[in-house]
Fold this protein.
Amino acid sequence: MHNFDFVKPASVAEAVKALSADGAQALSGGQTLMPTMKQRLAAPTMLVSLTGIAEMKGVKVDGRTLTIGAATTHATVAKEAAAYPALANLAGGIGDPAVRNRGTIGGSLANNDPSACYPSAVLASGATVVTSKREIAADDYFQGMFSTALEEGEFITAVRFPIPDRAAYAKFDQPASRFALAGAFVARFAGGVRVAITGASEGGVFRWAEAEAALSSNYSADAIKGLSLDPSGMIGDLHGTQAYRANLARVMVQRAVAAS
Amino acid sequence: MPKDHGIGASTKRREDVRFLTGKGVYTDDMRVYGQTYAVFVRSQVAHGRIKSINTGNAAAMPGVLAVFTGEDFKDVGGNPAGWLIKSRNGEAMREPKRPVLAHSKVRHVGDAYAAVIAETYAQAKDAAQQLADDTEIEELPAIVDMAAALGNTSNRVHDEIPDNQCYDWGWIEDNRAAVDAAIKAAPHVTTLELVNNRLVPNAMEPRASIGEYFPGTGDYKLTTTSQNPHLTRLLVAAFVLGIPENKLTVVAPDVGGGFGSKIYHYGEEALVLAAAKKLCRPVRWTAERSESFLSDAHGRDHVTKIELASDLEGNFIAFRTETMANVGAYLSNFATVTPTFLHGTLMAGPYKVPHVYVNVKTVFTNTAPVDAYRGAGRPEATYSLERVVDKMCRELNLDPFEVRRKNFITTDMFPYTTPVALAYDTGNYHATLDKVMEMADVAGFEKRRAESAKRGKLRGMGLSTWIEACGIAPSHLVGILGARVGLYDAATVRVNATGNISVMVGAHSHGQGHETVFPQIVASKLGVPESSVEIVHGDTSKIPFGMGSYGSRSLAVCGVAMDKALDKIVAKGKKIAAHMLEASEDDITFEDGRFSVAGTDKAKTFGEIAFSAYVPHNYPLETLEPGLEETAFYDPANFTYPAGAYICEAEVDAETGKVDILAFYCADDFGNIMNPMIVEGQVHGGVGQGIGQALVENTYYDSNGQLLTGSYMDYAMPRATDVPFYTVDYSCQTPCTHNPLGVKGCGEAGAIGSPPAVVNAVIDALQRGGHTHVTHIDMPVSPSRVWSAING
């Protein structure tokens, strides 16, 4: 690891200012950034910690809306998001206890790892990503593997989830990293069902339109039995072929539906 | 009543108190005054010619004290292979020199070609990066695939070896024609091609070394993560750096696991010593985890075709094996013996098969060196045998339990010499098979399978009946086979004046529990409390010349040496007691810590005799030296042959391909048991590693020789959720006939016997589930592979 400066602002405004400096990099739970820096693959000259900003922390419920501060850890979400059990359950299954007590929802979404759990919940819920500049709809936020709508210096301050009538997350672990080899988040609202798949696609998290249509008319695991995803866009690596991932995504959707 | 003391008691591991409370002292914990830091510069490419290294910039960086390259060591002796293997045609194996630092060529990703020494770790790291930037390497095509490597005369890992082959070994070559004929004539031949997957040892503690030089005396000291400090001293002093052995002390303090990977001498150890001398300051190095992945000696990596000839009732006629074994880029110390004499000699298994022949071609590739890893050759043999036997049973629709039973060597046949030259002294393979079948409730399997089916899961049962040869090894025999060292061990028992005892042993404990078990034996033998005995190990300046711990040999070789030293202590004690009790030596008996005159109540305690030995006021000084300290060296007469039977019960989720191991049963014959709890722990650990190999672990190099599984993000280790609660039994005991303790060794058994049981269970589940086209899946039997096999 190379030397760097470290600041820990107490407000969003201070953080915005700090991040305008050359070579500044936002740091949340550090679960990706720290290993990257230790391997000398990243060398920011200044880290701006977002974990000291009170307004970016905590879980709030307002009617059928759940708002989570971006610097809230997975462990806190698992404990406090009882109003949205599928989301709390997802948070409680990320990584291991050490990761869950450091890693944050904002950090995970800003990184947008194609195998991370949270992006599927945000996309399937049709959540709103609130940033230091604006509000971004989930459908506009995810722009492919490790790529998001965030601009230079912009950071997530909160995520606002509409709470669905029924929802569940099912994931199949990659044997080594325990990231999702494929994960499916299914959310049923009065207006229809949304299905998001993580871990499987080279394009990162995505919505599965055919599954959504099928489940909107018949909300049962059997409804998608005959559906299949095109393997050609799936990730193929030593942990699973493209065809395997396409299959796994469908199975995870079925299991999520059954569990919801 | 379970014993609470001495041999046979489950005494709790005394060393665990310090390990579990963070008070162990490992190499990296040590701080030495004036210490400096070494960082190695490692190749990013699998194969390349070093065109130039410009050390000037790195050497001028802040804090940098020295820069070394392969050029500095090109005239230094090479790190040798421990065994000379001869090819079928009588030629000696090709043995390229293994340098301290790569010179002129780099041969695998992670091959160290330079090192930087600096005042701080960060400075050394910065300078190492600079040096890498200032190095020009012409990349050559990588040689990764073994079959391609053998046929390639133009692209060579070592320029002087035209076909990348180390040797082409036949065992036993005289068997070959008969085996070929038997297979040709047999009513049935089962053929199986399989891969024994390459594994990274992943000891919890990475390798680490500290080199020191004392200019006042010219002495050196190497503190290092070694399983065998004397062997390391021999290699680094006599073979590599040319230091007289008596000027080098090697200390292996607490060591956090080895599994074989810390047997060998590595170039980093030589480098820190040479650098310490040059700088007259201590030089330290600790591997980063990614360095461990790239540069620790890996394990296994065989590609095998095995044929089993039988009659239609399943009586075995012949086994014929053709194996390609990967040794990687350089010959690590045991690399040449592992695929040969630790593998080929086991290819009869526990079976009375009349014909066996094994051919092993060992291949150089642009990958990390491969060497012995827990089980070392014997897991490869067992996996091939137990998989092909299982396949034969399916092809002939025979019961796998009955087939084993009818082919086992029977108890009346011992001692039994196999067609591949091992002489099994004793065993009872039927007993362990019966035991494991009872433990696993084989009769109730169908009911359990039906219950799984109701939940949509495919349930299967897999059997493995294994044997191994350990307690390595009789020096005379291994010498004939090409070993360049002896494989005895040694122990010194020092009874102190107040009756407590220090035992200096050649074995090295890096997690096994020697500090607990060895005192149990002393306690039983001398009638003293276990707590009055301390084991000293891991320091060449304190212990007798022993060969360390590997090959399940600590107890079966070093423990026996200690036992013999204890006999000498008792014999001398009798002489002292005879004098003190004014009796004839022949009339003295020793029992429960008391020397008595037979038929009288005259007696002296062990403590009184010890005191008298050191305060010899009433002592036969004219005929007996004072003191009570004895050393014994022990060279075993034969290998020991632990054996057993394992059953794995597993469930397959056909939708995802995921395998869940529901139960694992082990009935092992380890001969006499010194500490049942520790034996059980060894079996648990070994089976856990075997399940890791069978289900999740894999070392994957791409066609450019890049290691794609170079971190725990991609290299899967078995976790608690991957393994079941084990059911272990060791009541079937046929004590070893050629050592006085009757012990056989238990350290590797679990890793040897378990992988085929797991894979057999998975295939069984798929077959019973109607996926009858699936007759084999290579390890690791990952979800993707299982699903692809079902749907392929």
